[in-house]
């Protein structure tokens, strides 16, 4: 990218797209969304991790770092290909229009996805079967484990392989794996076909985006979920003992936001084991993600310099310790394998130390600036040196009004006290009803090379549009959905005008 290139993007996870089937999909609505971005001169589409979600439905606790979320598969496309009946597509339950009810969606879509996979096996054309077989062969290194894992999760009705599954499967004894693969072979095939459906559809979406001058920003959580196939199949790369039990967990220490810190519960990496294997798992992970998107944001980037490790059994994160991580070695290996110009965005929010900044800057990765974090008002005064204020941003950064973990900008402003609101209004020089648009305007006028606004801010939604409240596990998390992509013409015109005026 040229030094003076600046772009605008919109953050909108595919699950949030409107559809008749209760959850956004990789069908018409995805292409309509891309048309909307193109019409508005938006050149970036940022999404959350695309992996299949488990308990809590968080994309950041996916069951696989490599698989795709089957619930995003478009049923209409499967019907068009002859794998579903028309009636399957046009009948649907009375889904909520502004939320994803994941239980309802699973009950509706999973039987149809299985039916489509069965029809594919029975009636697919030879060239389509050949393409599927090539997909299975090329992706066997992760797909074989994932398909078996998903089947076992359903068989035992629980993804907690480390607690519920029989010891011989928990510890992946060769004879037990071979027996399960044989016993569940037909079910395993169904999972593989569904993954073929997902990636075939996603590549059409990505190709359409790229053809229209739009790049996709993907996302990787630094840690894997404890109840994931990643943990089950790669115990030797994690601090998990010979019995399959975690010995330590990830988190963050106590800070101004939490007296007890945050205990995430993810297993942490045995970096010495990764080093011995030349960081091959990480190379595959980044490479696979960059096949599905053009740029990748890495969540909790600071964990590559040092991470907070908490002994297993602790109830809070208070009694953890900082443990150094070989981030410099890792990125040397990644560059040797994938090229020097890694298209990575470093999520560097929170308390960041010099070693994290050095790791980010030495690799020329842009960091993140959150405009909502800029207005730390004390005594009715604004700290004008705040690094998140637009006038303090640097070019090699990505600025956001807010992220998936923040309130919407309207919700954030509404929740402020009078002194805070006064400072915001004075900085933006606007009345209450123009705060959201002036936040967007200031963000676009900053020198940050990329500026991203959540779809909810484009729509000026209040707190009802919030995507996630960190450290909670409620039904509203990860469930927000747009009612329509038919925006008022003035919203399109206003954003496009601001993009043009700011040179983005």
TrEMBL record:
Its EC number is 2.4.1.25. SUPFAM superfamilies: (Trans)glycosidases (SSF51445). It catalyses: Transfers a segment of a (1->4)-alpha-D-glucan to a new position in an acceptor, which may be glucose or a (1->4)-alpha-D-glucan. InterPro entries: GH, Glyco_hydro_77. GO terms for molecular function: 4-alpha-glucanotransferase activity. Keywords: Carbohydrate metabolism, Glycosyltransferase, Transferase. It comes from the Bacteria. Belongs to the disproportionating enzyme family. This is 4-alpha-glucanotransferase. It comes from Sphaerochaeta associata. The gene is malQ.
